[in-house]
Write a structure and sequence with these properties.
- With 447 residues, the chain is of the alpha/beta class.
- The protein has two domains: 176 residues, FAD/NAD(P)-binding domain (3-Layer(bba) Sandwich), CATH 3.50.50; 141 residues, FAD/NAD(P)-binding domain, CATH 3.50.50.
- The protein has twelve helices and 25 strands.
- The strands form eight sheets. A six-stranded mixed β-sheet has the order 7-4-3-11-22-21, covered by helices on one side.
- β13, α8 and β14 form a beta-alpha-beta unit.
- The radius of gyration is 25 Å and the shape is globular.
- It binds flavin-adenine dinucleotide.
- The site of flavin-adenine dinucleotide (FAD) has 36 residues, from α2, β4, α3, α11 and β23.
- Flavin-adenine dinucleotide binds next to α2, β4, α3, α11 and β23.
Length: 447
């Protein structure tokens, strides 16, 4: 049966009215301009609350710990974790996964479980901006009001020391990813390692406080061992911008020389001048090195959202002056915090550091919500294991806390201990690696 034009108009009017009544767009507010462009702002699909709301951006080692422990220390809080990924993949232990010594299930964890068991909301969205005055976090899924806001977004790469050519930077990102942010970079790296036919495999180490100081050296060990087991004519060449190995030096150097002398070439104090992708040659300040494959790890910076949100004043990074080093609060914004690898303080950028720091930041936020007496500063804890070999599995480790020096407003290491003698203690340390990882995953995701 055909319908008339009048009936059709009536019908479409009914649809418009029904849409308005059903409230499908009830949160949307359209602001039109004379030019006809329409900006839409809308509330995130999260129920309003009368409870103090704590919004945490980033479901990594820092954000997960803050979301869980804020809810524990301040049960009245409405805690929302804003995370752009669908599931969590661990960087710690991922070097073992590259060579098939743990499986992906061990590294992957469920954000929904973390939220369910710990009584907060996982909101799958990307934070895109901030209205500090109105206390609104802008996200890809709508605006989220907050009383307390934590930025724990981790790092981004900074390729500017190598190139200002965005096309070339994108080739480096795509063809030779660093593998220090989980996801496709790690999958690409694993494929490269497992399909390597021989020749030079370059790993670079940036200077500065890069993410996980020992991880590039640990990675070199497991890749070298993998090539050795396959009897490949291959070499892992480590081009290190630093003067020497930045952490666990004795343990790594002895492993390089005693276990992998034919498979690892360690070149410290190296500045890369040019990467010729067509001819596969790295030009350093004193050499030209041919390579068959590589993972180029550039410098790191705090994730870009900090800049977009106006909490990092420098165009690239958070500076020490941007936040209070003892309370993690952004200067001038008492209820906005920056934590984890994105923080400007010189703590080791490690998962354990971020997790332990998260417990403390949760206490700080809970203290404000509960209006209880001020909380004393607690040092983050850096416990870091590194694998030296996988057959048999041997590891070295370092433990450190930090002390704050008021006079020069800086932190130094304290209570440091280490176990770098992998010949004597490597096997015992290796057991602890799994215990550590399993305990930390449970701390982040279980009740
Ligand atoms: C290969 C490797 C090995 C490592 N080994 C160890 C180890 O053995 N021990 C150890 O302690 N540490 C280790 N680390 C370091 C550890 O992984 C990091 O220090 C830790 O992940 C930092 O935690 P974070 O929460 O600050 O950042 P992340 O864990 O990176 O989490 C940040 C989260 O924020 C999200 N995010 C970013 N921007 C936005 C946005 N705009 N909106 C929404 N979400 C956003 C990201 O998706 C991410 O999930 C290793 C790292 C690597 C790469």
């Amino acid at each position: 049966m055909a319908i008339s034009r009048r009936e059709a108009l009536q019908f479409s009017g009914a649809v418009v009215a029904a849409t308005a009544i059903s409230g499908c767009c009830k949160n949307e507010k359209e602001i039109g301009s004379a030019q006809g462009d329409v900006k839409t702002t809308h509330k995130a699909p999260i129920a309003d609350t009368k409870s103090p709301r704590v919004v945490v951006v980033g479901g990594g080692w820092s954000g997960l710990s803050i979301a869980k422990y804020t809810k524990i220390f301040a049960p009245s809080a409405d805690v929302i974790l804003v995370e752009q990924r669908h599931n969590f993949t661990s960087c710690p232990m991922s070097n073992l996964w590259l060579v098939d010594k743990v499986d992906m299930e061990y590294l992957t964890h469920d954000y929904l479980q973390g939220a369910r068991e710990n009584d907060y909301t996982y909101f799958h969205a990307t934070a895109t901006g901030l209205d500090k005055k109105k206390r609104i976090l802008k996200t890809s899924e709508g605006d989220l009001s907050f009383d307390y806001l934590v930025f724990a977004p981790g790092i981004d790469y900074d390729y500017s020391r190598w190139t200002s050519d965005i096309a070339f930077e994108n080739r480096l990102r795509q063809e030779y990813p660093a593998g220090f942010i989980p996801g496709s970079e790690h999958l690409t790296l694993k494929n490269k390692i497992q399909n390597f036919k021989g020749g030079n495999f370059i790993l670079t180490v940036p200077s500065g406080n890069y993410r996980c100081l020992p991880a590039p050296y640990e990675r070199a060990c497991v890749i070298a061992e993998y090539f050795k087991q396959k009897n490949l004519k291959a070499k892992v060449i480590i081009l290190d911008e630093n003067n020497t190995i930045t952490i666990k030096k004795e343990g790594f150097l002895s492993a390089f020389y005693e276990l992998y002398s034919d498979y690892i070439e360690y070149i410290p104090n190296t500045t890369i001048k040019n990467i010729d992708l067509e001819n596969k040659i790295v030009e350093t300040d004193f050499d030209e090195i041919k390579f068959e494959d590589a993972a180029f790890y550039p410098h790191v910076r705090g994730a870009k959202i900090l800049q977009r949100a106006g909490v990092a004043k420098d165009a690239k990074n958070m500076l020490e002056g941007d936040i209070d080093p003892l309370t993690y609060e952004v200067h001038g914004e008492k209820n906005i915090f920056v934590t984890g690898d994105a923080r400007p303080m010189g703590f080791s950028k490690s998962g354990n550091t971020s997790n332990s720091e998260g417990h403390f930041v949760a206490k700080l936020i809970a203290q404000k919500i509960n209006k209880t007496p001020a909380v004393k500063w607690e040092s983050p804890v850096t416990t870091c294991f590194s694998i030296i070999s996988t057959a048999p599995i041997k590891a070295i480790y370092v433990y450190s806390e930090y002390a704050y020096n008021k006079e020069n407003s800086s932190f130094s290491f304290t209570s440091t201990s280490a176990s770098e003698n992998w010949k004597k203690e490597g096997v015992v340390n290796a057991d602890s690696v799994y215990n550590w990882a399993t305990a930390l995953y449970a701390d982040m995701f279980s009740k």
